[in-house]
Amino acid sequence: MTNGVSVELTDLTRVYGPVKALDGLTLHIEPGELVALLGPSGCGKTTALRILAGLDEATSGSVSVGGQDLTKVPANKRDMGMVFQAYSLFPHLTVVDNVAFGLKMRGKDKGDRLSRADEMLELVGLTAHRNKYASELSGGQQQRVALARALAIQPRVLLLDEPLSALDAKVRVQLRDEIRRVQLEVGTTTLFVTHDQEEALAVADRVGVMSQGKLEQLAAPAELYANPATPFVAEFVGLNNKVPAEVSGGQAKLLGSSVPALPGSISSGAGLAMVRPESVTVTADPSGTASVTSVAFLGPISRVFCTLADGTVVGAQMASSAARVFSPGDPVTVGVEPTGVLVVEAGG
Amino acid sequence: MNRTSLGGKLLRGVLWVAFGLFFLFPLYAMADFSTRNLLKGGRTLQAWKNLVQDDALYQAIVISLLLAVFTVVLMLVILVPTMIWVRLRAPWAKGVIEFLCLLPLTIPALVIVVGLRNVYLWVAYFLGESALTLTFVYVVLVLPFAYRALDGALSAIDLKTLSEAARSLGAGWFATIARVVVPNIWSGILSAAFISIAVVLGEYTIASLSGFQTLQVQIVLIGKADGPTSVAASLAVLVFGFVLLLVLALLTRGRRRTGAIDAAVPAPTTATQSGVPT
After folding, report:
1. CA distance linking residue A221 with residue A224, whole number of Å
2. Cβ–Cβ of B184/A90 closer than 8 Å?
């Protein structure tokens, strides 16, 4: 089911004194799509969301939702539901009154308000808590109520501003999955802002990676992971090894293998290849020129760190059962799987 | 029960009694004096009856109560939206507003009266020679106390997030303040209001030097001729103040309990509350 509308951010710029928080951001979101904006602190992702919500004003550029220009429309007239990073339930209202608040502002009668609020609470599984106050709920429950409250008004766009960052790891994963389930169920166009790459890759239809106010790459999670367009994306999304490589004829030679160089790589010469730990292979070899530095156990997987003959440290990710055979100091041969790699200039 | 806790309880009991006597004895003395018949001996309630039978005193009580009400209303109308606006839209102005609000504490009443004389010529020209025009100067006088009470209440809530949540749900600025902010700073508003009432009912210098007959001015005047009535009026004002504080404590008790529950719930660890958004 798709209830969503398209969203168009065009050439958005936002300047705070000497700081350029957004630098010509252009983003198109399809109806019903969930797009995650991912990036480090200060990259402009929250600024973009706040401008879309009407809580901040762009220095230049335009915001359009469903073909309607909303650039100068105030926040309370935009029909957008928002879940904030900080707990935002109104402390003086019960859960059900919180969820019904937006409907009250729209002049709905009490019966309709309560019925819709109960419907939303059922959607997020909190019907039993309808008469409690925010202070009586856990952090995860508060954010679920905030989600129900944002959806109760049947918003044209749902905005999620790092809604999970205040929660502990287990609740974060549960709520992340729940947000995706609910979003798919109601079909609302959604913009999700996060600095957690795992969160973004897990829930989004497309992920936009931002750096210094600019959109570096916007792509489906698998595409973004496999084919990063820029060194920043390669580095920010997933762990990366930087391994010396030689590029010629679209092929990169590294770790004794020749693999395709991804678009965006240097055209020829020496550079650094961005290699994912899962693409690195380690083989026990008494005559190997590399040696195991350390083994990090991470549950089902382990990371084996090796030092190459030239001193470069490379991390390989493998099943813990496979990593058991390695101990620090063991001589090994390090290789790379024949997937594409991005090769950047050695100074980059 | 060990000796330490018994000793602690004893000490607490002794302190309770000592402080109780310290505060209650003057009140008892006032009550005793105000019910004495100084001419014939024995007891009389004439001084208390004078509070409503003496026309000048009765008028002064009404004027003082009206001044208290008008001062509280005007103070809240000016201060609450201003403080909310400063916190949300102009945090750079917070220091200036705080300085201006606290300034009256540092200026003697006599200086205020002299300074306001010219201003009050205009006030009298437009509004007449009513004692109720003291409302304006009283609003200035209560600013330091009201500011502190409201500032504490506003600091206790995440004003930015709550108001942005309300606006994103369709509330305009007035609805945001009336339906979301005010209910969550209610205890601060009550504190500011009650402290302001206490200040207004206790103010003498400005009213006296400005020539207006407020309750305190009347108490001093009556005290020159009729001691018991003057003391009865003073005691009534004191008891009224105590009752106000008691009501304040009762009204905010429930909210303090809620606050205690709030404190037990883990707060966001990485909440963005201010500064340039990411």
Report:
1. 5
2. yes
